[in-house]
């Protein structure tokens, strides 16, 4: 499972850094990064990650989905969130979440996509993000949903 998470993190990093137009191109980037994967596995990863293709000047290229413009069911958001998260800790009305490197922003956007009325906002770094709840009482409800 860790190998899959690392591979998917590498795919996300490549897609964010480069305009990749084909699965073959993505395979080459992964190989260059020292990750060997079959076409079938890559195709499954792309589907699971919700990677989309968007039009560009040189053709359609891969892009990570945005929680703001891709409709995703709450159960799917939680599944993706749990795939990125390493630890969750809280104090008062604050929840600190650590993630795989480079995944904090995406995981925070997934929390934003859940539209908790108790969440005032999220602030993300590289591998850590902060959830600010409206009260310390709300923290347990938020944690229960995220850990479901």
Summarize the structure.
This protein has 6 helices and 6 strands, in the order H-H-H-E-E-H-E-E-H-E-E-H. The protein has 148 residues and is an alpha+beta fold.
Relevant terms:
6 strands; about 150 residues; about 25% strand; 6 helices; single chain; Gyrase A, domain 2; four-stranded antiparallel sheet; Arc Repressor Mutant, subunit A; alpha+beta
Summarize the structure in words:
- This protein is α+β, with helices and mostly antiparallel strands and 148 residues long.
- It folds into 2 domains: 62 residues, Winged helix-like DNA-binding domain superfamily/Winged helix DNA-binding domain (Arc Repressor Mutant, subunit A); 74 residues, Gyrase A, domain 2.
- It is 47% helix and 24% strand.
- It contains 6 helices and 6 strands.
- A 4-stranded antiparallel β-sheet has the order 3-4-6-5.
- α4 runs antiparallel to α5.
- It is elongated.
- About 3% of the residues have low confidence.
For this structure, the CATH topology of the largest domain is Gyrase A, domain 2
Could you estimate the helical fraction of the residues in percent?
40-55%
How are the strands of the largest sheet arranged? Answer: 3-4-6-5
Order of helices and strands: HHHEEHEEHEEH
For the largest beta-sheet, the strand count, sense and barrel status come to:
4 strands, antiparallel
CATH architectural group of the largest domain: 2-Layer Sandwich
Structural class: alpha+beta
Estimate what percentage of residues fall within beta strands: 15-25%
Per DSSP, the total helix count is 6
Overall mean confidence score, pLDDT:
85
First-residue to last-residue Cα separation:
19 Å
Radius of gyration: 16 Å
User: CATH class of the largest domain, please?
Assistant: Alpha Beta
Total strands: 6
How many domains comprise the coordinates? 2
């Amino acid at each position: 499972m860790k190998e899959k998470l690392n591979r998917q993190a590498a795919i996300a990093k490549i897609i964010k850094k480069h305009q990749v137009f084909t699965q073959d191109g993505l395979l080459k980037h992964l190989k260059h990064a020292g990750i060997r994967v079959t076409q079938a596995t890559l195709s499954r990863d792309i589907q699971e990650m919700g990677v989309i293709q968007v039009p560009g000047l040189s053709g359609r290229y891969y892009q990570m989905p945005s929680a703001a413009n891709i409709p995703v069911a709450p159960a799917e958001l939680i599944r993706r969130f749990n795939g990125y998260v390493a630890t969750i800790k809280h104090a008062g009305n604050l929840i600190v979440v650590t993630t795989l490197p480079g995944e904090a922003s995406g995981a925070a956007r997934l929390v934003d996509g859940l539209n908790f009325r108790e969440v005032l906002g999220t602030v993300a770094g590289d591998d850590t993000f902060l959830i600010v709840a409206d009260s310390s009482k709300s923290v347990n409800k938020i944690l229960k949903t995220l850990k479901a």
